[in-house]
Design brief:
The chain is an alpha+beta fold. Helix content is about 35%, strand content about 25%. It contains 15 helices and 27 strands. Strands 1, 6, 7, 8, 10, 11, 12, 13, 15, 16, 17, 18 and 19 form a 13-stranded antiparallel beta sheet that branches. The chain has a 5-stranded antiparallel beta sheet with strand order 22-21-24-25-27. Strands 2-5-3-4 form a 4-stranded mixed beta sheet. α9 crosses α13.
Length: about 675
């Protein structure tokens, strides 16, 4: 399976809310939990900014200390500092309900605790205002980002498998994406996946388990998006990706594909005619693979990268020098007779006549003025040179930009060359030891040691385990490490992103997989034997059911939300009506969570919905009042007959709202 880098991505749909953030630090003296006057004054403009924001807002106050003193004492000191700042904010007019207070002692310094100036930076309270402008309860849910999208990087020049955090597996064929407006680099595709496997994730993703037909039993929901350079991609015509979702429900009834129907920010579903096929996979012990001795002994693998190993030379391109920005000369200051330096106030000849003083003053002024005229002539010549240099600078800058792009391109080519050099080293290792490995391989086959379903993987593991590093390989590996270090440094200096030995390296599995396919006769022979073996296994009928795993599988050409659900067909007399009364809140979404069928359905204000009797349900309300303050309420009950919900609502901060939903 393709190894992929996992990174947390952004929210699952494009939000319509906006967010504003303002930060302030105030600093404390040593072992003091109150602010000095000048630090206290910093709070006033900050409070003024907060009061001027009409959107919903929260203020986070966190106290810190330097590393002097014990950890326990510093925790208490940072707590007192946070409490003091909170008290000052409230005293100056902030609503206490807006403020979230915390403390972290010495655990999160922003500077080394080596000098007094550095320690002072750590003796702080950080104050952060976060303000949100949202227009619906769905916006409010998106702010929480409780089910973040996962981001993967893949090389789409080959087939790829991605396994999501929650167990869904996605298979993308090589070169399956396209961009209708510009070419793409298939080796640098980004895939964003959102998985919904339970009711809590469903609420956080604003997805429901209902359709016009009624309540759905969910097998899982997911959303796929693909990007290159932040441009959205689509699947090529005639190509599809495949998804496998673990079968955790009764498999007697087929799961169907449901496509999204977005309303009020909540995604409900429309049934399609596409089935999710129920698939079984055998995981138990397998009969052993037998291969013909003669074919194995005649197995020959031609070298492919040996010329690279023998002729490789490494060089770094010369980094271009940026042109110097021309410096404009400073015009000399014209001297004036009235300047203080010509007043001769420090002259120590009290009996000198006034006329002599005046004459001396004139001489000094003339001398200074002559120097000024000399400097002025230089200035005009410098100005002329500056004008010429300024005109040339733009040309030099343009030329530098071109050279810089060429330099970066050469660095990338250098990385590609070094990557091939590494493959040549691996190939040399494998081919030099292959005859001995081939004999060991035949012995293992004769002894019936091959029982894996991934025979080529086991073949490559066996061959690779026999390889020894000789002097030639060792020499080239040392040179590779030297070259790679230089290239990594150059990449960082050129701001081309991260490149390291891992990304330059070709793993043993990859190079072995490539080498094993070069002898087409052996490759096709082993494949035919594997196919025959599988047929033999299924024809015996002697499988233990516990050795099978089950999953739902379907293929799609659309990159969007997909739901693996089925309709719950319950007789009308076995349903009960759950009603939601009016409330005083401006915006509110109601959900009914039915955990035993993995469902979340929505109930709009003053309306009702039918729920199967004898179900344990949780009714949840998420919304805000006229002042845009978040509110949350819930009620648990067992459905016996028609009922009206009686939710108790509380005002909550965003962190409390996220925790409340997570704990439903």
């Amino acid at each position: 399976m393709q190894k992929l880098l996992f990174i947390i991505f952004s929210a699952i749909w494009i939000p319509t809310f906006s967010q504003q953030e303002i930060n302030l630090h105030v600093l404390f003296d040593t072992d003091i939990d109150t602010l000095a006057y000048e630090e206290l004054q910093k709070l006033n403009p900050f409070i003024g900014q907060i009061k001027g924001i009409s959107d919903y807002k929260e203020v986070y106050v966190v106290g810190y200390t330097d590393a002097d003193g014990s950890s326990a004492y510093n925790n208490d000191l940072s707590k007192r500092r946070a409490e003091y700042v909170k008290k000052m904010l409230i005293k100056n007019g902030l609503d206490e309900q807006l403020i979230d207070e915390n403390y972290k002692g010495e655990s999160a310094p922003i500077a080394l605790n080596t000098t007094e100036n550095y320690k002072r930076l750590n003796r702080r309270v950080e104050i952060t205002l976060k303000a949100y402008n949202f227009s619906s309860p769905a916006d409010l849910i998106n702010i929480l980002n409780g089910n973040p999208t996962q981001k993967y990087f893949l090389d789409n020049t080959k087939n790829n498998t991605i396994e999501g955090e929650k167990g869904m597996r996605f298979y993308f064929p090589a070169y399956c994406f396209k961009n209708n407006t510009s070419p793409i680099d298939y080796a640098k595709i980004e895939v964003a996946i959102t998985e919904v496997t339970n009711p809590i994730e469903s609420i956080f993703s604003n997805t429901l388990a209902q359709s016009p037909e009624g309540i759905l039993e969910s097998g899982g929901m997911f959303k796929i998006e693909a990007y290159f350079n932040n441009q959205k991609l689509v699947m090529k015509d005639g190509m599809q990706y495949t998804v496998q979702i673990a079968n955790n429900t009764d498999g007697n009834k087929k799961m169907m594909v449901y496509l999204p129907n977005n309303s009020n920010g909540l995604i409900s579903w429309q049934a399609s005619n596409i089935p999710f096929n129920n698939i079984a996979k055998f995981n138990g012990p397998q009969p052993t693979l037998k291969l013909d001795n003669k074919i194995i002994q005649e197995w020959k693998i031609p070298p492919f990268y040996d010329s690279i190993l023998n002729n490789y030379s490494f060089y770094l391109p010369i980094k271009p020098s940026s042109p110097a920005y021309p410096q404009k000369p400073i015009m000399p200051k014209e001297p004036k007779i009235s300047d203080a330096r010509f007043q001769l106030k420090n002259l120590k000849k009290p009996f000198m006549s006034k006329s002599k003083k005046l004459k001396l003053q004139q001489e000094k002024f003339k001398k200074s003025y002559a120097e000024y005229e000399k400097n002025l002539n230089k200035y005009y010549s410098y100005i002329q040179k500056y004008s010429t240099d300024s005109a040339n600078y733009q040309k030099q800058l343009s030329l530098y930009t071109e050279r810089q792009e060429d330099y970066k391109e050469n660095l990338v080519n250098c990385a590609i060359g070094l990557y091939k050099y590494k493959k040549a080293i691996k190939e040399y290792q494998i081919l030099k030891n292959f005859p001995a490995a081939r004999n060991t391989l035949q012995q293992r086959i004769d002894a019936g040691k091959f029982t894996s379903s991934t025979y080529f993987q086991e073949l490559s593991d066996n061959i690779y385990s026999t390889i020894k590093i000789d002097a030639v390989t060792s020499y080239h590996l040392d040179k590779y490490s030297e070259y790679a270090d230089k290239l990594i440094k150059a990449f960082k200096e050129a701001a081309l992103g991260d490149i390291d030995n891992k990304s330059l390296n070709m793993s043993p599995d990859d190079i072995m997989g490539e080498i094993l396919t070069r002898d087409k006769n052996v490759y096709d022979y082993i494949n035919s034997r594997i196919d025959s073996l599988k047929t033999e296994q299924f024809n015996t009928g002697n499988f233990n059911k516990n050795n099978f795993s089950y999953f739902y599988q379907a293929s799609f050409a659309d990159l969007k939300w997909i739901n693996c659900d089925r309709f719950i067909d319950v007789p009308y007399n076995m349903m009960a009506k759950i009603s939601i009364p009016d409330n005083q809140f401006e915006g509110m979404n109601y959900y009914i969570v039915i955990k035993d069928i993995n469902s979340v359905v929505s109930v709009y204000e003053t309306k009702s919905t039918n729920i199967p009797k004898e179900k344990e349900i949780t009714i949840v309300g998420v919304g805000y009042d006229s002042q845009k303050r978040p509110v949350f309420g819930q009620q648990k009950l067992k459905v016996q007959g028609d009922q009206t919900a009686k939710l108790t609502f509380n005002y909550v901060k965003l962190g409390e709202l996220k925790a409340a939903i997570a704990n439903i």
